[in-house]
Amino acid sequence: MKKIILLLIVIITSSISFAQSIKDREKELNKANKEFMKQLEKKYDLKAIYVRVEEDGYWYFYVYRKGYISGILNQQGDIIVPIKYGRIEYKKPLDEGVNVSEEGDTVWHRANVACFHAETFFKKNEPQKYGIYRLDGTAMVDYLEANFCFDRIEGYTEYLKGDINSTNNVHALYTRDGECLIPMGYSYCKMKNKSCEIMQRFGDVFSHGSFMHGAIMLDGSLPPVPCQYSAVSYDKKNNQWMVTNPTTYEISVYDPNRSLTSEMKDKGVELFWSGKYDDVIEYYSKEGIAKLWAKYYTGASLFEKASWMDLDINSFIRISKEGKMDITVPKTDVTWRQCFSGKKYDLDLLKELYSTGYKMMDAYLHEDSTFAKEVKRYTLVDLDYKLNSLDENKADFNLLWEKFIKENEAIVARQQAERERVAQRNQMLAQMLGIFVQSLAQSLNGSSNRGASYSGGSSRSVGSFSSVSSSSRSSSSSSSSSQAAPTQYRQCNKCRGTGDIFTTSTVGTYGNDKKVRCNVCGEEHWASTVHHHKRCNNCNGTGKVAK
Q1: Stated pTM of the model
Q2: Given strand 59-65, what is the order of strands in its sheet?
Q3: Are residues 499 and 442 in the same domain?
Q4: Which pLDDT belongs to residue 109?
Q5: Helices 2-32 and 34-44, interaxial angle, to 10°?
Q6: Which run of H or E residues covers position 477?
Q7: Alpha carbon distances (Å) from 539 to 86, 107, 294, 323, 431
Q8: Which of 116, 151, 186 is the last residue of a domain?
Q9: Which stretch of 218-227, 332-341, 398-407 has the lowest confidence by average pLDDT?
Q10: In contact, 168 and 156? CB cutoff 8 Å
Q11: Final residue of a domain: which of 134, 162, 186?
């Protein structure tokens, strides 16, 4: 125990000593480059410049312009990172190695050179801009537009565009020093050893939103597989990709010289592969009606539409019964996409989709057997069983749907009532203030006919009211004594005339952050940023203070 304590003391002492040596080095370099830094300030129109020394000994000039807009200059005064970012972080060189992912898989990463990671300040309702710049000034990523950026695992940086809680966002994957492995557009990736499986969404995200699979080798030892397959896996023994055809479900070795799209029988097959099932049905009812496989792909499209609708209904019933239905989930969320769109599922239509799908598959088998295996997969469950299950769910679904709608209406009504209450309160306060100021002025002037004329304010918006204007008219008096001047008012600087102020604080959401709406002001904010409203203590909620 004594040895452990002694070791900790040595480590802490060494860390303090190391940190102090960095500070001493920075002071030394700031002093030695004083005149040069003045020249750089003038050259680049800077507000501030100082030397920063990193743990590996590398040093540079960290510079600011108005508004704390940051950039990086090298030791010669040349721009490495353009002066247009808010936060900039130095990334020291990274040796080749392995790390463990969140899923528990070992992931390899190559050696990375030193670089700078930069991002703009957060602005409401605006995506941020990101950059990765190497020490020679090479822009590996320059002002990339995204909503979030995070290190997925050591050696790799991931950018996300869209709502972090939505299933419709897209990602891009880079090495830590800025080489693009996957451009913006994929939906999910899973890294294991040196392989990385990719998924990309195809089709209508509000109806099916099917995922297609591809893959890359992180060390570039195998050609990348485009997102065109139902599944992709890495055969380590033979060092090759194995892919599953989305139309035939056959597993084969990936051949980069073969294009899956070119193997499509016609436009209808391509539409089916892309998850555009309504277009498939329309195509084979018109242009492709004479094709041997028309009935199969029409029936398969009906089954796909029905199965996703069936999944949504069962998810809605289950989550509603568990009391976990959250109306703050975005309308694009897959789980309850139809429910949140405000359109109730038609269970009779769902039964018709299944029934017609079975009929189309049966008709196809009387003409052709090419897709007999796939037909069996779709019709594995007996039709009567499916229809009976839907009948059993119908009563539950209708009851829970009505409850869901009422709860939504209740919440909306409460929010609207709160906004109206606040508006009425502010209007009343403004009127009372106007009467008070007028009475005060009359009292000070001695009579109403010699008093000042005032007009009360009215409600301008939720949480605020208009300023009370005043003007005074002075009249001469035969008396030698002068009358007291009425009190003059100005807008309160603390609340800016609104009468209330709000404060924010941050709480942990453990990766489940989402947008919520304030019941008072109606503004949207992240759940991790706690949003408080209170009466201004400077003007006591009036929005005005004496001059």
Answers
A1: 0.57
A2: 48-53, 59-65, 69-73, 79-85
A3: yes
A4: 96
A5: 70
A6: none
A7: 35, 59, 75, 44, 16
A8: 186
A9: 332-341
A10: no
A11: 186
H or E segment and range at residue 181: strand 180-186
What's the rounded Cα separation, in Å, for the pair 454 and 439?
A: 9
Q: Look at residue 406 and tell me if it is in a domain.
A: no
Residue 64 has pLDDT above 50, yes or no: yes
38 and 153, same domain (yes or no): no
Mark whether 28 and 146 lie in a shared domain.
no
Name residue 26's amino acid: E
The DSSP line for 116-141 is: EEEEPPPBTTB-EEEEEEETT--EEE
For the segment 139-151, what is each residue's pLDDT rounded down to a tens digit? 999 999 999 898 8
* Type of residue at 52: R
Q: What angle do CA 57, 58, 64 make, to 5 degrees?
A: 130
Residue 203 lies in a domain: no
pLDDT at 414: 65
Residue 49 lies in a domain: yes
- The torsion defined by the Cα of 241, 245, 250 and 254, in degrees rounded to 10, comes to -20
Specify whether 433 is located in the same domain as 509.
Answer: yes
* Between 240 and 409, the higher pLDDT residue: 240
Residue given tokens 């080489």 in the structure block: 179
**Residue 349 neighbours by CB distance under 10 Å:** 11
Are 68 and 163 found together in one domain?
Answer: no
The residue type of 520 is V
- The dihedral through the CA atoms of 526, 528, 529, 535 has a sign that is positive
209 against 438, higher pLDDT: 438
Same domain, 423 and 542: yes
Question: In the prediction, which pLDDT does 468 show?
Answer: 33
| Nearest-angstrom CA–CA distance, 503 and 13 | 40
**What letter would DSSP give residue 224?**
P
The domain tally of the chain equals 4
The upper half-sphere exposure of residue 71, i.e. CA atoms within 13 Å in the direction of its Cβ, equals 24
Query: Cα torsion for 533, 537, 539, 543, to the nearest 10°?
Result: -10
* Partners of residue 65 on adjacent β-strands: 69
174 vs 286: CA distance, rounded Å: 45
Q: Mark whether 115 and 49 lie in a shared domain.
A: no
| 374 and 306 within one domain | yes
**Residue carrying structure tokens 């002068």:** 482
Spatial CB neighbours of 351, under 8 Å, sequence gap ≥ 6: 387, 390
Containing domain of residue 274, as a range? 270-380
Using pLDDT thresholds of 50, 70 and 90, give the confidence band for residue 356: very high
pLDDT band at 257 (very low <50, low <70, confident <90, very high): confident
pLDDT tens for 106-151 read 999 999 999 999 999 988 778 899 999 999 999 999 999 999 898 8
Residue partners of 352: CB distance under 8 A and separation at least 6: none
* C-alpha span between 500 and 543 (Å, rounded): 8
Decide if 13 is inside a domain.
Answer: no
* 458-471 residue pLDDT tens: 333 323 323 333 33
Question: Can you name the residues that pair with 108 across neighbouring β-strands?
Answer: 98
